[in-house]
Amino acid sequence: ELALIRTFADQAVIAIQNARMFKELEARNRDVSDALERQTATAEVLQVVSSSMADAQPVLDKILDSCSKLFRSVLQAVTLLDDNALLQLGAMKINLAGLDAEQASQARSVAEFTRDHIYPIKLSRRALEAMQTSRRIISSPDVLNDPDLPGGMRAPAKATGFSYAEMQAPMFASDRCIGGISVIRASGDGFSAHEIELLKTF
Description:
The chain is α+β, with helices and mostly antiparallel strands. It is about 55% helix and about 20% strand.
């Protein structure tokens, strides 16, 4: 009986080690898959950049397509800041795949409100200085109920009553802010540090 229980114990150890190795392999495969997806998205953007020297629009569209895939976002936008301190909506894409009817309706409402009532924005000198000096990415798991966000960022959520997570990254050419990229998720979960770094790359 002692020998038998020792055999059971040895088998249990083997099973636990196998399960641990399998989980580690799964995690490694997931990391490799994520890295490959990021590299593919970046390569696609670079390919469009090299073939669209005279027109930025295809590049912006490709970046927004990549954001939609990599961040599982329902709405993504690029804003552009002109020389007159006017912040314009450069490009916007909406992705309703996987949303139920109510979520799709809310996402459309946010997109419409943003397009029709938010932009263009004439920035005050103070707001312009803040854009030029701050290089940080703003991220919130719940825009509707986050009092620390700027009013303009919360306006679509307040107008539509739609709770969503959002991340915004500024775009700089040399030391000058020329706009930003925004990514919105329908769910209330926030963005990871890894995702924040990825948006910074775009």
